[in-house]
């Protein structure tokens, strides 16, 4: 066994400089994990899957559950993903990748069995807070072992000084899901599929602004999951809930995004500006423009995401931002707000769960832990 494979012990660990260091969504990006498409498999059937995806995609998913994604979807998405990685590298950013996985392999716990999904969206399964990576307890059974594809990276980061935590592994039994759930209709009070049987959350329901985090309660993140994060981080951090009007909420990064100190982007369909947390009263609230329509009939049928994927941008620093080339209205809006958009293609990634923010996990941004709000 060579020395590189040995974890540091004793005082040696204290002298290491963690390769993981990211406190917000906008400090200059130095290293990022980008997901993979290899082995992608349509999610296995489950209420927590079908309730969270658009109607047509839910029908597609029920018909193809457990089968590999067809080449007609993989091909264009892979070409765009490769180009996106090239753009990141051209900006001097280190790109790392998870291990390829055969997601069609069946696995089981004592209570249920499933096939996998994919590792296209590292933003969902891991939450980076400073020098710590937290593996999240996700509510989709098909994603139960998803972080195993990142274990090569996680062990390397840990050996080099990062903190590595895993939230409690959930049971995902029927007790977690409300059997009487149906999405609320217009004018009806909000309700969620998840009970508070145990803590579950996706990291993509959180965005970071230094000592303040913003979260949406959703059909993959319950109150118990939010409370686990709050207690785990302790008094040095504050966790604020963004109330979403989406009838089937999942992930904050098409609802509310912090782009730079003092600037937050909101989805006017999902967020009531008058009901934002008071702490945001001193910030500029940028209203996302109506997304440009998607004309491709195959994308309209298979996308796991809603139309507001136009908001799913990746900040390179406080000014530069990678955004979808197709969404020209958003590109113009970003320019008008003083940003420097870098147009890129990732439209065909939507059947696999996201766009630029979802497809990445920022490991290191050059900056320190700060508070961006009045105390």
The best one-word shape is globular
Strand-pairing-aware structural class: alpha/beta
Describe the main β-sheet briefly: 3 strands, mixed
Helix % is: 10-25%
Distance between the termini: 50 Å
Compute the CA-based radius of gyration.
20 Å
Number of helices: 8
Give the SSE string. Answer: EHHHEEEHEEHEEEHEEEEHEEHEE
Largest beta sheet: strand ordering: 2-1-17
Quick structural gist:
The chain has 8 helices and 17 strands. The protein is an alpha/beta fold and 375 residues long. The protein has a 3-stranded mixed beta sheet, covered by helices on one side. Strands 5-6-7 form a 3-stranded mixed beta sheet. The chain has a 3-stranded mixed beta sheet with strand order 8-9-10, covered by helices on one side.
Jot down its keywords.
globular; 17 strands; alpha/beta; 3-stranded mixed sheet; 375 residues
Task: Give a written overview of the molecule.
The chain is globular. By secondary structure, the protein is of the alpha/beta class. Residues 1-7 have low confidence and may be disordered. The chain has a three-stranded mixed sheet, with helices on one face. It has eight helices and 17 strands. A hairpin with a 2-residue loop joins β11 (256-260) and β12 (263-266).
């Amino acid at each position: 066994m060579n020395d590189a494979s040995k974890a540091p012990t004793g005082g040696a660990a204290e002298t290491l400089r963690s390769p993981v260091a990211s406190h917000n969504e906008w400090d200059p990006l130095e290293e990022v994990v980008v997901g993979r498409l290899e082995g992608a498999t349509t999610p296995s059937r489950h209420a927590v899957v079908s309730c969270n995806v658009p109607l047509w995609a839910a029908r597609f998913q029920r018909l193809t559950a457990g089968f590999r994604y067809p080449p007609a979807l993989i091909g264009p998405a892979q070409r765009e993903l490769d180009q996106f990685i090239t753009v990141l590298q051209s900006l001097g950013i280190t790109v790392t990748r998870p291990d390829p996985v055969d997601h069609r392999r069946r696995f089981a716990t004592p209570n249920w069995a499933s096939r996998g999904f994919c590792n296209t969206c590292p933003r969902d399964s891991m939450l980076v807070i400073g020098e710590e990576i937290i593996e999240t307890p996700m509510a989709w059974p098909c994603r139960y072992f998803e972080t195993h594809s990142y274990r090569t990276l996680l062990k390397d980061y840990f050996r080099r000084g990062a903190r590595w935590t895993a939230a409690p592994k959930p049971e995902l039994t029927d007790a977690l899901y409300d059997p009487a759930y149906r999405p609320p209709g217009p004018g009806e009070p909000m309700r969620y599929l998840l009970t508070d049987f145990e803590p579950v959350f996706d990291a993509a329901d959180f965005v970071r602004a230094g000592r303040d985090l913003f979260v949406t309660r959703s059909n993959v993140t319950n109150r118990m999951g939010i409370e686990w994060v709050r207690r785990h981080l302790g008094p040095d951090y504050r966790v604020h809930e963004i109330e979403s009007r989406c009838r089937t909420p999942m992930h904050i990064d098409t609802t509310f995004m912090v782009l730079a100190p003092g600037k937050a982007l909101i989805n006017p369909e999902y967020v009531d500006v008058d009901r934002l947390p008071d702490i945001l009263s001193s910030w500029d609230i940028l209203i996302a423009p109506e997304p440009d329509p998607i004309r491709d009939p195959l994308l309209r049928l298979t996308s796991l995401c809603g139309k507001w994927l136009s908001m799913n941008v990746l900040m390179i620093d406080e000014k530069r931002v990678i955004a979808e080339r197709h969404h020209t209205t958003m590109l113009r809006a970003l320019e008008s707000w003083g940003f420097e958009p870098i147009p890129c293609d990732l439209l065909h990634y939507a059947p696999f769960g996201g766009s630029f923010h979802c497809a990445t996990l920022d490991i290191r941004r050059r900056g320190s832990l700060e508070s961006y709000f009045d105390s």
